[in-house]
Write a structure and sequence with these properties.
The chain is built from 9 helices and no strands. The protein has helices at residues 2-16, 19-51, 65-92, 95-127, 135-156, 160-174, 177-187, 207-239, 244-249. The longest helix has 33 residues, at 19-51. The protein is mainly α.
Length: 251
């Protein structure tokens, strides 16, 4: 029984590792994922920005949380996605993993930049300044540079194998920064507030604010998956253009 299950997993794993199979399969998922993403983001935005109650201390300025928190979370999780793809590529030599890795880098960099931008906008009415060298803000800035480093390495080598390997190594080394970002508010004195949503304890946010925030987080997760698939499909076409199945798409 276990051998059959293992064979099925291996068969699926290698099938998913085929650029052609990935391209053809995700093409069927994209319309549904796009509808779900837009629906959740529109619902969460209207709910959070229009109907959630004001914060007792911050008033309406806190509402940027419905944008800032989801993209900040995804910026960190997206780095793990990139690093995991890099690890799979290094260990099992699966081509599609390399493509996912380099496709996740610009998306992660954009999310990290938006997290820093929305955080600075929120910081002005809260702290009285757009920027402080706070432990979490600084570690998020390092995350942004790590993403840029992967993007730069991907463009720096003429050999694709060398570029992919360098990107994978930097991605894996950079994972040490993610726990630092997450625990920075606990390890050091910081202006940045602690985690709003807690999985192991009571959340410090009112349920009427928490519900639209969860909807926005789910919406951004779906949006991330959508854009990552689109980026990867573009990477596949760029790298597999000599393949007969790619040439057949234009016929």
């Amino acid at each position: 029984m276990w051998q059959s299950i293992l064979k099925f997993i291996q068969k699926w794993f290698h099938r998913f590792g085929s650029p052609r199979w990935f391209y053809q399969t995700t093409g069927k998922w994209l319309p549904y994922l796009a509808v779900i993403s837009v629906g959740l983001l529109v619902l969460g935005s209207i709910w959070g920005l229009g109907f959630a109650p004001q914060d007792a201390r911050q008033g309406n300025s806190y509402r940027i949380i419905f944008i800032h928190v989801p993209i900040s979370v995804l910026a960190m999780i997206g780095y793990y996605v990139m690093a995991a793809a890099g690890a799979v590529a290094l260990i099992w030599k699966i081509k599609i993993a390399n493509m996912v890795m380099v496709s996740a880098a610009p998306l992660g960099a954009a999310l990290t930049f938006l997290a820093l931008l929305t955080g600075s906008i929120w910081g002005k009415p809260t702290w009285g300044t757009y920027w402080v060298w706070d432990a979490r803000i600084t570690s998020m800035l390092i995350l942004f540079f790590l993403y840029l480093g992967v993007i730069a390495l991907n463009q720096a080598f003429t050999s694709r194998d060398t570029a992919y390997k360098a990107c994978a190594i930097l991605s894996l080394v950079g994972t040490v920064n993610i726990p630092i970002i997450y625990k920075s508010v606990d390890w050091w004195y910081t202006l940045h507030q602690p985690a709003t949503i807690k999985l192991t304890g009571a959340s410090s946010i009112h349920p009427d604010m928490l519900k639209p925030l969860i909807v926005m987080i789910l919406g951004f997760y779906c949006f991330y998956a959508l854009v990552l698939m689109l980026n990867t499909r573009t990477e596949i076409l760029a790298r597999e253009w000599r393949s007969s199945w790619v040439r057949g798409l234009s016929q």
